[in-house]
Design brief:
Number of helices: 13
Low-confidence stretches: 236-251
Number of strands: 5
Mean pLDDT: 84
Strand order of the largest sheet: 2-3-4-1-5
Distance between the termini: 69 Å
Order of helices and strands: HHHHHHEHEHHEHEHHEH
Largest sheet: 5 strands, parallel
CATH architecture of the largest domain: 3-Layer(aba) Sandwich
CATH topology of the largest domain: Rossmann fold
Helix content: 55-70%
Radius of gyration: 23 Å
Strand content: 5-15%
């Protein structure tokens, strides 16, 4: 076994997998720069730290269950009138998350509500927060099957342990009373410990009709809007409609 192979084996024993995979490059870089022993050790350890941080971010992004990767830098502020650059920067800074605020994005399909929520979630992960994303339809399924499914129970646990929980398409469809009760129980459990981002194509005044119970609606709204910022996109045009592709092309 060569000295390099011996080093790789020792590094893997120490669970320094990233450094083990890149030991050749590290040694070559050390020779090119004629680094001292101290600088070599610093470079050696920094490589492992960077590798571990990349793996941590990759793992957290995977666990967040985003449907796609959309960053805030890709969000086009010029396409809508409801959010200023200053407000977008405030969302990006995540001070509201540290303070336990919720965010509700209201508006018709295609104005960027989901894009914003995913972008904020990615910013939160990059800052070390645990994030979970789900659609309302999937959440209802998880809540209804948690008593009989270990997979659903694990998902509920991960939601409860998260710093930020994103619910996409809230109130997209009417709920049965049992579903509304389960949803309230989850919101009540998260209240005060997990920030929530909600996207909805219905205003809060319409939630009661879809939840089917005025008392549950009031209780849910009370917990969500107690500390909450509401961004209303109902006056904006759909980005997808304005930028739709046509089979006819330009005339």
């Amino acid at each position: 076994m060569s000295s390099i192979e011996t080093l790789e084996s020792m590094l893997r024993t120490l669970k320094m997998y990233h450094t083990a995979e890149n030991i050749d490059n590290i040694i070559e870089k050390t020779r090119e720069k004629s680094l001292t022993n101290e600088k070599f050790l610093e470079e050696f350890l920094n490589e492992e730290i960077r590798g571990r941080e990349r793996r941590r971010l990759e793992k957290m992004l995977k666990q967040a269950l985003f449907p796609e990767y959309k960053t805030l830098s890709e969000f086009n502020l010029n396409e809508q009138r409801s959010l200023s650059e200053r407000q977008l920067n405030q969302l990006k800074e995540l001070i509201w998350l540290e303070q336990g605020y919720n965010i509700v994005f209201l508006g018709p399909p295609g104005v960027g509500k989901t894009h914003l929520s995913i972008g904020i979630g990615i910013e939160a992960i990059n800052s070390g927060y645990k994030v979970r994303f789900t659609t309302m339809a999937d959440l209802i399924h998880i809540l209804k099957t948690q008593e009989i499914s270990s997979v659903s129970r694990n998902k509920i646990k991960r939601i409860s342990d998260s710093d930020l929980f994103i619910i996409d398409d809230l109130m997209f469809m009417a709920m049965e009373k049992q579903e509304a009760n389960l949803f309230f129980q989850l919101i009540n459990k998260l209240y005060g410990q997990t920030s929530i981002i909600i996207t909805s194509n219905k205003g809060p005044e319409e939630w009661g009709e879809l939840l089917g119970d005025a008392a549950i609606t009031t209780a849910i709204l009370d917990r969500i809007v107690h500390k909450c910022e509401v961004v209303n996109f109902f006056d904006d045009d759909s980005y997808r409609i304005k930028h739709r592709q046509s089979i006819f092309g330009s005339l």
